[in-house]
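Input:
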Amino acid sequence: MNAVINRSRFVLWSSVAVVFVLLPIVFSGGFELSMLSQMGIAIIFALSYNMLLGQTGLLSFGHAVYFGLGAFMTAHAINYVHDGGFAFPITLMPLIGGLTGLGFSLVLGFVTTRRPGTPFAMISLGIAEMVAASALMFTTFFGGEGGIVTDRTSGGAVWGVSYGPQIQVYYLIAGWCFVSMALMFAITRTPLGRMANAVRDNPERVQFVGYNPTRVRWLMMSLAGFFAGIAGALATINYEIITAEALGLMASGNVVLMAFIGGIGQFWGPIIGAVMVTFLQSALSNYTQAWLLYFGLLFLIIILYSPGGIANLVTMHSPVVKAGLVKRLIPSYTRAVVSSLILGVGVIAVIELLYRGTEAIGVSPLVSWLTALALVLTGAVMLSRSSKKVSQLWGELSPELAKWS
Amino acid sequence: MAVDRSALKLTGVRKQFGSTHIINGVDLDIREGERHALIGPNGAGKSTLFNLISGRFPLTSGQIQLKGQDITNQEPQSINRLGLSRSFQITNIFPKLSVFENLRCAVLWNLGYRYSFFKRISALKDARESADRTLSLIGLEDRREKMAGELTYAEQRALEIGITIASGADVILLDEPTAGMSHSETDAAVELIEKVTQGKTLMMVEHDMGVVFNLADRISVLVYGEVIATGAPSEIRNNPRVQEAYLGTQLEDEVSS
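Output:
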């Protein structure tokens, strides 16, 4: 059985590597390429965050601190190399970011991980606020409002790789992303990773099987800081500028959203979240200035109706597929999707009408408002009916599914 | 069976919460290899005494020795590493981990894996075998991959005992292992406890007198934070102070009938 698991795991990871290699060939445009690079960074960052939240049960509101400090240190390192300080290849710069994140999370984590739960969340918030404030005070290191500017090509080309073109930066990010993903996954399968789950479930009992839960939390936080630092370093290389925003509360909040939207209960959940959030942030902001509002709505809906995130929706359906019951779900799912679409279009229409005003559209206010409200109403009624059908159907299927879960 | 060395020695142990005295100077000597039951009316301080011994609460004063070593006011994990393991009255497991993972978590420290994040856990044969041994001992083989939180109450109680004994600790504290169980479940639990504490020192809090008189080599009676008697089951049964303070009505009924 183990051999089968190992083989399918090998196939899975190989396909991930192949996808990473092929993606920029399929999506070769400049916009796509920079979005893919951002996604790679976000994946590392979100996975590192989930080492805290999903695996150890630590809700941190200040994870961007380690991302940001890693990013700033990398920027200085690149500039130092540029000024002839020492020779160090750009390819390995993420190590500098990682070690910076590790160093700071070792020190700060020693204090913050003493208490789990709400105290931890509050302390993490306090530290995030503190670091963000000092970023504006210590301008030599953080560069004030302008941030720190670097030149990733300053090291010159090594074997023809200068990191001038974005495609080279993409492959640098993809490589580090793959290695970080593999390492973070491996950590979940170690004694420490397993005890982190135990600490998440029941820190008290952990003490009575010989472990110190504080030590487990501290180590997990340090490792999470390491990977966050790697992500930060890659951001510096990618953008060639880093400002205090990178370690601010917004950035810390963003990674919470990524993890929750993707799902914190599965290792791969935050990957989905990182990809989706990055995509929405770049794509939506092209179409509407109200994108933050939509983004907030999406977060609300997911937390309310699928607290386990998108990953949970997927795992929830795996027994359905195994039991061969997909067909029975399709009709009511179709109805639910259609009614959500109608409701969604209606809500978007209302928001855009409010946001842009009716003049922008060129249809009379009365008609546009009536149409929008009619859509919302129809969609809402249809959705409430079809979702009742769906939950009824799940109730009917559950005895059959029990065998397969 | 009982050797004359002490596994657990309490000297003048006191505990007060604020101005409330819960434990008022308890002296106890649990010998190596014996099964010792701690009984007493509700609120006598039995669970508190367990919490003091296992390091969950600090003592107000007094001293506790485990196999001759002072463990007074040490952290629970340090006491556990010295070979004392306890269960809880209210089931205290890792609900989102599988039954097998629950047991594997319980053996990792003792096998020396500490906080390792370099070793693949699936490659640790001794941890797997040790967890599987306990799994079959507590009779939950067919629940191996099930989430612990989804087990029935009796199964969770068995897992609770499994986690407690998995690491091979030689001093075992069980806090009301049969609480809330039906007759048949209780019988199964007693059998399980007998099986898993072979050659170990057992101290247990128990309300079911059938279980106590059946299982225990010696019994201590705790009333208002004081041990009023310690002795073999027959001595306890006939001790007038015990009858008066705790077993009174129950035993009189038995005698008169």
